[in-house]
Request: fold
Amino acid sequence: MSEPTGDRVLVTGALGQIGTELVEALRAKHGDAAVIASDIRTVEGHPCVSKGPFAILDVTDTASVSRLCRDEGVTTIYHLAALLSATGEKNPELCRSVNVGGTVAVLKAAKACGCRVFVPSSIAVFGPDAPKHAPQDTPLNPTTVYGETKVEGEALGLEYWTLHGVDVRGLRYPGLVSYKAPAGGGTTDYAVEIFHAAVGSKHYRCFVRPDTKLPMMYMDDAIRATLMVMEAPATSLGSSRTGYNIDGFSFTAEELAAAIAQEVEGFSCDYVPDVRQTYADSWPDSVDGSIAKKEWGWSPAYDLHAMTRAMLNGLSD
Reply:
């Protein structure tokens, strides 16, 4: 266990794919007792619940968020609670309520309580008119409700920073691949499900075409980027502060299946695209992370083959 740092941290949506690993990293950094995990539900035995403080929290309730921050002396909020792309498209009203309403509530609480805030964005902010290698600054015209909520989240963060002095920061996460927690209903979830299938039945039915290429990142890199941007001096951050592009690596579904087949004898994959293919087609093949590199030193550590070995080793332990 690390020594306490004096910071008090709240993580919303802590039981999700990112939250599970971010809470672990934050508790290693600040001490278990200093990091409060929260979610709309609880899961008995989940490490976020069993290894430190945990609270049931509705992030759309400003009063509840503010009360928790005041009572616990919270200094920094990592606001991860959200509906992801595939889930959000099935219930647009709920997606807007949670993703936008929750962000507004958290930002209001942060303003009232003097907290710094991390609000993640996503490659879903890009639309089909964006270049296939998406630059940091380009028109954001997403075709999904989820993407629209992330564009609004970036704008809200800038508004609260500019008008109210709330230190808001964010990253446009690529598709994230991890094994410690289930994926949460996103379009890039095939890149997680395929590994579970590889160590199980050795066959996967993929819901996107074999030539579908998307920006991806191994979770260890995503957690490291999150901590890096929050540790960066405020003076080093420019106008991209609430939605930095961060590059990992890009691959097609077929390339991922081939990389797994090199490690798992007998693995096979077929392709039966569904509605999620439409969402994937509206996103870029890769992103330009040069602004994040320039302003706070971002550089990915994992490539496709390193990620593949890490995932298979993790799931086999």
User: Anything to note?
Assistant: The longest strand covers residues 213-218. The domain at 175-216+247-316 is CATH 3.90.25.10 (UDP-galactose 4-epimerase; domain 1).
